[in-house]
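Reopening this one. Same input as before:
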Amino acid sequence: MTPDDITDPLRPLQYVTDGLRGGALTESDPGITPLVRTHRLLNGTRPFAAILRRDLFDLCDQIDSLAGAVPDLSALETAPCIERWCGAVVEDLPVLVGVVTGHPRLREGARTVTSPLIRIAPSEGWARTFSRYYRLGRPDQSVFAALLAEGRLHPGALRFDIPDLGGWA
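Same output, byte for byte:
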């Protein structure tokens, strides 16, 4: 996957569901196997078992469900915040990179790469990754270059643009 494959930057995994359902993508395409494994881990099933066609459709259903959901206020109140963030394609999957606070497993101020980005609503101040919601602080594309220069991002990582839509002054 490259940034050019992202047809809707607000729903960057849309290409996966369209591609898998339409037969243009299979489990052998880059990024699909890690998505299936993550999906299985989050659902408590066997991550390394052989991938079956039904697994791909289950993955599509999960992505579509997450992409269609809008967080309620309580979900956002407890969600970690990601500051100085930008969109990136890392190892064939769209993600956010940035500085996180309030994350249940990361230290305060950790620079991180999120799980795959499913939906982002910049004007509403939130994003949904495969594993959780994030509250969005200010975007900052320089974090991508800094993490890449420090070797903290895969060398083939590419930045992609997410429309501002008037969310920040």
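So the earlier flakiness isn't reproducible anymore. For the record, The chain has a mean pLDDT of 89.
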